[in-house]
Write a structure and sequence with these properties.
Number of strands: 12
Number of helices: 11
Distance between the termini: 7 Å
Shape: globular
CATH architecture: Alpha-Beta Barrel
CATH superfamily: Luciferase-like domain
Largest sheet: 8 strands, parallel, barrel
Strand content: 15-25%
Strand order of the largest sheet: 1-2-3-5-8-9-10-12
CATH topology: TIM Barrel
Length: about 325
């Protein structure tokens, strides 16, 4: 199976004009996937000091201004929006994009922005319960005429979602790395799984764990698409790579080593081999996460050298 290549755009430190130019360029140059992230503040956290746009409003523009790439959000934090409202937004974005939008859900991590905006941020166990309930509601509302659900955190009563999505089988992505609960929820509810910033070997381990969960719940593992997000730190020279490494460590601090394990902190030729390694470990879609400012020359090299090289190897 050919490996798909996409982009995960952080809508920070870029003007609306720059964002429009970026996603139009990526779409025209053959991106298989373009997504945004669901934050109010910048990531990595800097106390809300950087310009950052809200996801759903911006996705409307992304859906209207691109033509071929699959679109999504990897991933919406289920604590920020009522899941029925999120399902309604997803159906609207599906129509705006002519059936290309695919919703993604997660348990969240950015406690700084949640606290600043007045959202409760419960412990991870409760957030995962919220994710499980939200996934069931959204799955129902995107695929059936009426949905009722009564949970601890969320409920709907005979809720409709007209017009329904154009896609006959709407996609539902779930992002996360938790082996005990997150991947079980993926196996039970999702059509796609997304992992962020892990090494190829770790991705392979998690991929096998997901397969085992599928066996336990009676699900065909082939029904679930597998994807990974990689932080974009491509360098054309040794000097470039030294600067990118310094940027990554300065921005992420104690988390830098973890992020580095799932980064394209390498040259273009090395990037081809690294992406193929993820494919070898089960990835069907590899997205690079773009956080501005990034080197325009490095992105051009990725588009013109790395993507064609990977596609040639995975035809």
């Amino acid at each position: 199976m050919a490996l798909q290549l996409g982009f995960h755009i952080g809508q920070q430190n870029l003007s609306i004009t720059e964002l429009r130019q970026l996603w139009t360029k990526l779409d025209q140059q053959g991106a298989d996937w373009i997504s945004l992230w669901d934050h109010f503040y910048e990531a990595p956290p800097a106390g809300g000091s950087q310009d950052h746009f809200e996801a759903i409003a911006l996705l409307g523009a992304l859906a209207s201004e691109t033509r071929t790439a699959r679109l999504g959000c990897l991933v919406f934090y289920v604590g920020y929006r009522n899941p029925a409202l999120l399902a309604k937004a997803a159906a609207t974005l599906d129509h705006l994009s002519n059936g290309r939008f695919e919703i993604g859900l997660g348990a969240g991590w950015h406690v700084q922005e949640a606290t600043a905006y007045g959202y409760p941020f419960p412990k991870i166990g409760n957030r995962l319960d919220m994710l499980d309930e939200a996934a069931q509601i959204i799955k129902g509302m995107l695929s059936q005429p009426r949905t009722s659900f009564a949970g601890k955190h969320f409920s709907v009563v005979d809720a409709s979602n007209n017009p329904m999505p154009l896609a006959k089988t709407p996609a539902l992505w779930i992002g996360g790395l938790g082996e005990k609960k997150t991947l079980r929820i993926v196996a039970e509810q999702a059509t796609g799984w997304n992992a962020a910033y892990v090494s190829p070997a770790r991705f392979g381990e998690l991929n096998l764990t997901l397969n085992r969960w599928c066996e336990r719940v009676g699900r065909n593992p082939a029904e679930i698409e597998r994807s990974v997000n990689l932080s974009f730190h491509l360098g054309l020279t040794a000097s470039d790579l030294k600067k990118e490494r310094a940027i990554l460590h300065s921005a992420w601090g104690p988390q830098a080593e973890r992020i580095s394990a799932g980064a394209l902190l390498c040259t273009p030729s090395e990037a081809i081999e690294r992406i193929l390694d993820y494919h070898h470990h089960g990835a069907e879609l590899v997205n690079v996460a773009l956080r501005a400012p990034f080197q325009a020359e490095a992105l051009e090299s990725y588009l013109e050298t790395v993507m064609p090289g990977v596609r040639l190897e995975t035809r």
